[in-house]
Amino acid sequence: MAFKYVKRTSKKAKARKGEGYVAKGKKPPLGEGKRFEALSSALEKKGASNPEALSAWIGRKKYGKEKFQKLAAAGKKKKK
Q: Per-residue pLDDT tens for 8-47?
């Protein structure tokens, strides 16, 4: 199964604010950009006006500025 974020369907999950998605499948290694793309697509489905910027903000908050910049650089390098 490919890695993606899936919307939760239980009543308890629907009642909670902001916890509507859960990761499914084996997570790809950091630095490939696939986690970033999955999060961006989930945020786009949720109605974010700029999902890439929101994903970047979440990544910087989670990993810190330096580590996130290294991951972003590694992701750009792999895309080429």
A: 777 776 677 766 777 777 888 888 888 888 889 888 988 8
Tokens 């979440």 belong to 58
Classify 23 as helix, strand or coil.
strand
Structural domain range at position 17: 4-79
User: pTM for this structure?
Assistant: 0.68
Q: How many domains does the chain have?
A: 1
Look at residue 4 and give its three-state secondary structure: strand
Integer Cα distance of 40 and 65 in angstroms: 19
The burial class, CB within 10 Å (0-12 / 13-18 / 19+), for 10 is: exposed
Token duo for residue 3: 């890695």
Identity of the amino acid at 73: A
| Nearest by Cα to 71 from 2, 61, 60 | 60
Question: Residue 50 gets which letter from DSSP?
Answer: S
